[in-house]
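Researcher: Structure prediction, please.
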Amino acid sequence: MNPNESSRLVVVSNRLPIVLEKSGSGHVVKSGTGGLVRALTPVLSHRGGVWIGWLGYGEDEVADLKEALGEGSRSVGYDFEPVHLSRQEVVGFYLGYSNSIVWPLFHDLLGYCSFDPDYWYTYLHVNRKYARAVHETTRSGDYVWVQDYQLIHLGAYLRQVDEKRKIGFFLHIPFPPLDIFVRLPWRAQILRALLAYDLLGFQTWRDRRNFLTCLQQLLPEVRITGKGTVVRAEAGDRTVSIGTFPIGIDYRSFASASGGEDVRARETELRSRFGDCKIVLGIDRLDYTKGLPERLQAYKNALERYPDLHRKVILLQVVVPSREEVPEYGSLKGRVESLVGSINGKFGTPGWVPIQYHYRSIPQPELIALYRLAKMAFVTPLKDGMNLVAKEYCACNPGHGTLVLSEFAGAAAQLQRGAMLVNPYDIEGMADTLHAAVMRPDDECRVRMRKLKENIRKQDIFWWVDRYLRAAFDRALGDFPGQEEYLPRMSLQGPNRE
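Model: Predicted structure follows.
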């Protein structure tokens, strides 16, 4: 990473990639869930380093915290450094500013935003706390890599005490277009805070374009130079690199696990349960950006218009609990479960339940077994930074499956040549695509799946980290397949059904 061998990779995120579970009189460390954890854990295990973040507990809630973290660090090959947050800080910073302002705004869902000024000040206070933790934990040769929207101001605060520190930032969620971003009361402060980093990374060219447009319109004194994967923004005496780095998965790990005995046994068990029905698979966190009600409406529409699907298809929808303290998420859960009940009540017959719904986290062997089993993955977010479920499905499926993917997922730019793309707001269009995907011959599926697998294999998680760190240390980057601007192949004529 750096010619200085004493340097380390230091990852900073809102949460540590672990959870503590009670074991006898103490606690043990278990790996956390989520895309960021799955993406960066193998990198740090391979390279060594430090991960800094909140553990999810108060400082005094776990008596054996130091011992448990030490044992966990030894088992994974890198160190954990916790940041302690009070309940008030969690409410204002995480539930408030991060998830009631930035998250919905950056996903173009203004109706969910609550622009409370108190959230903003708590967010700044917590970002200072993280910056102090980084300053106290790291040394000058380390490369500090800040992850995601909760910690945008960390770099600016760290810069105040260490002007020459190498600091990078990667945004895992989309960056909104100008007409959405300008609604943020603190828009100029956010842009200036991002310019404190040495390298800004975005998932797609569209996200980077949106950011550069906001810079040019709101901070016209900033000069943009260069073209290609990485451009430069000159702001006063600082030059910031801005690049596009689509995040990947640990392809080899998933592909290898899909052939494991425990996975194959679980797949056989599931197949015996579902019989000859083809499985349409949905796996999502509980979140209003995932398009869950729209997906269920599309499935309902397909059952209404395509009777040949009856008793032949099951939608297996797994919803992973998330942010249950946020009222909007509880309302969404109720709406999803109401739709599931309504569809099953209308179309279900003895021996066939059209939707199998599970509200829980599932262990990885079962997850991979579902990826192997499913004839189709139904991945239809209203907007997504990347969406790693789409990539995991392709890595694990033997080849008979089809990826149906939202045009507004970041992964659509990379996977459009093998996936079937849909507009998640087009209920009938999704229903038509679902029917076509389920009925697609296996031979045709294998041709498309081979293309997807090859793409995902080449641009895996280690490729992502290597490209980012090469850019961070000014090493040459070549072009990569699929980097061109993504333009959806949309029809100008809508449905014309009488």
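Model: Residues 1-5, 482-498 have pLDDT under 50 and may be disordered.
Researcher: Thanks, that helps.
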